[in-house]
Specification:
Layout (H helix, E strand, L loop, with lengths): L4 E7 L2 H8 L5 E9 L8 H5 L6 E8 L6 H11 L7 E2 L2 E2 L5 E5 L2 H16 L9 E4 L3 E3 L7 H4 L4 H17 L9
Parallel strand pairs: 6-7
Antiparallel strand pairs: 1-3, 1-6, 2-3, 2-8, 4-5
Helix pairs in contact: 1-6, 3-4
Length: 180
Amino acid sequence: MSTTATATFGGGCFWCLEAVYQEVDGVESVVSGYAGGEVPNPSYRQVCTGDTGHAEVVQITYDPSTISYRDLLEIFFTIHDPTTKDRQGPDVGPQYRSIILHHDEEQKQVATTLIEELEEDDVFDRIVTEVAPLDTFYTAEEEHQDYYRNNPSQAYCQSVISPKVTKLRQKHADKLASAK
């Protein structure tokens, strides 16, 4: 019997991160939601205003004997731009910020170490990704779950999400569920 662990990341629209992590070997579930804000039980409409303090995030349940937290973070830094504050492509506002919400001190250390390494290796000039403890995760409305799977031909999915999934498949082919 394997144990599971949880990771919570925000890097733009949660539909993008959800679509990517659903393809990763060892990921058991990906839930889109909101975290990092002050308003209890926020709605999508409230979060979209940018006034709740929440980021659109995904909460990933994974098997650490199959994929490590660091591997999940390496994927995270591959599929979004951690150098732009409150923006990912066409999505603008604090709800789209780059954020790692750690569940314990070990996750915090892994995240901060990886960020330091990426900057030292000049992978990115200046990473603005926020690293903070997870307080409360709020699950997004049902229509936001499995969005890419349910709407693959929708324009946003084709122009924004599909390229991220393609990038995952190219850069992390060894970590895909289909590769096993």
